[in-house]
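User: Please fill in residues for this 301-position structure.
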């Protein structure tokens, strides 16, 4: 991992702690362990009978979290795995029911700085975007192999960019000369397609933001994995157990909102957060990642 990568600050940690109170013997799943910030927050309230099962697809995150959580009194079970497999992973580790499932769907801050990840257009990096290096298909593979219609559909579906067809056309034209293999190349193509420079006014997002989001979601199968987690959660939660999801864009938040509503109608959940909880201006000032975070919580009836 790039040595310049800063420490990841857990988003909405204070708001979460206000909403969720765990008994000392609780069993918690941190589905996105990261550097262990959220697990540390809740782990400090757990005793020797408590358990934290931490999942992450990035081995570096697992190692950093282990160091951070090693002084906790509770048992910590770190697993290098995707949360879409939560059910079988828990059963394999002799955990039948849990009191709390937490998933922070945001990128780990260090990932954006990590040249090996290829996620940022702020620095020129190989166009990879795989958080889990066990995945076979990179963003460069998609950009250079998908036909124009499939590429446009992907950018529209996962990036919600209305200019998706134009962007796809420019990408296909560009790759005929030479493959697009770096983040800077792709960002430049998108900027040309939209007729906008990369650095606009401070309050405007970079023109390539939506295309990069779309590719990252597709490469890492983010929405499929989230759906699998949401489907798996109800039978794993104890009565009065909570599920808390922090999402960072409308596609994720819509999935969570609709799942919670569906389960509430079926008498499985009671929705704790009638509206999503968002960050205070103070938190946003300290951590810009928090500005788009939305926290939703449901309780198993």
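Assistant: Residues filled in for all 301 positions:
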């Amino acid at each position: 991992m790039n040595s310049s990568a800063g420490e990841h600050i857990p988003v909405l940690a204070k708001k979460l702690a206000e909403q969720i109170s765990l008994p000392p013997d609780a069993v918690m799943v941190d589905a996105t362990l990261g550097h262990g910030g959220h697990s540390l927050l809740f782990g400090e309230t757990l005793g020797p009978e408590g358990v934290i099962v931490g999942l992450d697809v990035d081995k570096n995150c697992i190692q950093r979290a282990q160091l951070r959580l090693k002084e906790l009194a509770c048992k910590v079970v770190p697993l290098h795995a995707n949360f879409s497999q939560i059910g079988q992973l828990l059963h394999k580790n002799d955990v039948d029911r849990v009191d709390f499932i937490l998933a922070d769907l945001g990128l780990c801050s260090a990932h954006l700085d990590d040249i090996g990840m290829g996620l940022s257009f702020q620095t020129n990096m190989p166009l990879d975007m795989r958080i889990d290096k066990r995945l076979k298909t990179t963003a460069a593979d998609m950009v250079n192999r998908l036909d124009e219609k499939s590429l446009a559909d992907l950018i529209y579906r996962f990036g919600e960019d209305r200019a998706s067809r134009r962007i796809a056309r420019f990408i296909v034209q560009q790759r005929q000369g030479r493959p697009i293999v770096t983040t800077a190349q792709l960002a430049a193509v998108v900027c040309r397609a939209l007729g906008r420079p990369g650095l606009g006014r401070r309050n405007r997002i970079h023109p390539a933001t939506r295309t990069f989001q779309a590719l990252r979601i597709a490469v890492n199968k983010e929405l499929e994995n989230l759906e699998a987690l949401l489907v798996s959660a109800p039978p794993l939660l104890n009565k009065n157990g909570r599920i808390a999801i922090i999402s960072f864009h409308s596609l994720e938040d819509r999935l969570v909102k609709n799942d919670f509503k569906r389960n509430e109608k079926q008498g499985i959940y009671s929705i704790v957060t009638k509206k999503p909880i968002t960050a205070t201006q103070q938190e946003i000032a300290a951590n810009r990642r928090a500005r788009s975070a939305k926290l939703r919580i449901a309780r198993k009836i």
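For context: The chain has two domains: 13-110+222-300, 115-220.
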